[in-house]
């Protein structure tokens, strides 16, 4: 299946015939461009945050993918694989491996077998890796046994079975004394979970171009051949019950939700359905940091994600403007540190009042508000950015003239070692162990 691989903030355009792809600008067809342009305009008109931006590159109208990663599927089947910008220097395979490891920290992707998926990522596109993981999960479910359930049935039978439906029996069998219109429960594999898995198998069989995935999908479809597909997907998901003995369905059903309901932050839809598995890198980076920073935390302290207990102002007996830091370090339920993650590039070489390392003023306002509300204006607040070649160590501490007891740190988090680099002064040593 046709497709391209790009990185965050790369752009796509309809290039003149005979020209080659340029740095950060990739060739797509006029139909694909028109569909992407429709998505960008629709979101902009609705006032929603969009994953695409209309722009210009080299004098050409172009569409730029913003800070989102994953897979975009266009209505004609054309696939656009979007990888993290920090992986560009090391190539597509390493970037895919990094993304898969980071996605494992998201709740909806907790079922990924990291080692298996990373091995596949070196030789196949991201969507094929996702499909392979879904098929692996379904195969495991089948091997442990598909579950049946009692299903209410009505039929005109030659023998009385269950309960006689007198009204229907008299209407249909007044002259047929050899028949009984009955209502009965039948123990059947036709239950919502199995219908949804069969539906998902049919869908990924259309998507995949991998011979191995196609073969396994066909084998699994054969297993589900006697089970109908779901004609009411949302209703069937609502009918799922957490019965005993169904834990081995969890991974397969999690993937089914992602594929059938497009339970990623975005779904690209034009005139025709075109599901996209796209994820904002801000959320992916936050989940990755939260998981691994907890391991770096010294004993006696707790790391709490997405705290949302305080508001910025009170007006007419109402609390307004929620203050929701990404992470909060507590000691014996007392707030000690406030941390916020930012998927942005910091350049320690730009240490001047004009460029300010590439930092955003709004982020500092935000952390100052967190410090005042959660720490009573005393202590340390931390901005965490990904470690890069231009940002390898903690910046000199920032102070607030009107809040002399509040300090702000800008620290790098290394994606390969999965650790946050601490300032050499040791101010944060009571809370975190140093990078080894």
TrEMBL record:
<dbReference type="InterPro" id="IPR019292">
    <property type="entry name" value="McrC"/>
</dbReference>
<dbReference type="Pfam" id="PF10117">
    <property type="entry name" value="McrBC"/>
</dbReference>
<protein>
    <submittedName>
        <fullName>5-methylcytosine-specific restriction enzyme subunit McrC</fullName>
    </submittedName>
</protein>
């Amino acid at each position: 299946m046709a497709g391209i691989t790009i990185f965050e903030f790369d752009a796509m355009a309809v290039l003149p015939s005979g020209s080659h792809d340029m740095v950060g600008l990739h060739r797509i067809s006029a139909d694909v461009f028109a569909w992407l342009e429709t998505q960008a305009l629709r979101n902009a008109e609705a006032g929603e945050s969009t994953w695409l931006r209309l722009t210009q590159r080299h004098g050409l109208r172009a569409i730029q993918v913003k800070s989102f990663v994953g897979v975009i599927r266009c209505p004609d089947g054309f696939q656009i694989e979007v990888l993290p910008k920090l992986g560009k220097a090391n190539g597509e395979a390493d970037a895919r491996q990094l993304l898969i490891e980071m996605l494992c920290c998201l709740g909806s992707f907790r079922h990924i077998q990291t080692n298996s998926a990373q091995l596949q990522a070196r030789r196949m596109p991201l969507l094929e890796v996702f499909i392979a993981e879904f098929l692996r999960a379904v195969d495991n479910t089948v091997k442990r046994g598909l579950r049946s359930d009692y299903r209410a049935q009505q039929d005109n039978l030659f023998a009385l079975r269950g309960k006689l439906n007198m009204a229907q029996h008299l209407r249909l069998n007044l002259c047929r004394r050899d028949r009984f219109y009955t209502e009965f429960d039948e123990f059947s594999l036709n239950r919502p979970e199995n219908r949804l898995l069969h539906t998902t198998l049919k869908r990924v069989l259309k998507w995949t171009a991998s011979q191995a995935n196609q073969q396994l999908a066909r084998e699994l479809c054969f297993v589900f051949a006697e089970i109908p597909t779901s004609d009411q997907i949302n209703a069937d998901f609502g009918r799922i019950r957490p019965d005993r003995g169904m834990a081995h369905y969890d991974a397969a059903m999690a993937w089914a939700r992602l594929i059938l309901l497009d339970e990623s932050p975005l779904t690209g839809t034009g005139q025709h359905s075109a599901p996209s598995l796209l994820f904002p890198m801000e959320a992916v980076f936050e989940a990755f940091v939260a998981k691994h920073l907890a391991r770096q935390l010294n004993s006696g302290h707790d790391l709490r994600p997405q705290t949302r207990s305080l508001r910025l102002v009170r007006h007419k007996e109402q609390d307004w403007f929620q203050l929701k830091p990404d992470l909060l370090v507590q000691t014996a339920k007392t707030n000690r540190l406030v941390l916020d993650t930012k998927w942005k590039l910091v350049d320690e070489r730009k240490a001047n009042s004009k460029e300010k390392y590439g930092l955003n003023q709004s982020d500092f306002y935000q952390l100052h508000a967190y410090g005042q509300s959660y720490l009573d204006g005393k202590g340390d607040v931390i901005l965490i950015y990904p470690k890069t070649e231009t940002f390898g160590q903690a910046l000199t501490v920032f102070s607030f003239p009107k809040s002399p007891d509040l300090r702000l740190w800008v620290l790098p988090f290394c994606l390969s070692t999965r650790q946050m680099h601490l300032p050499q002064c040791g101010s944060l040593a009571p809370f975190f162990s140093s990078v080894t």
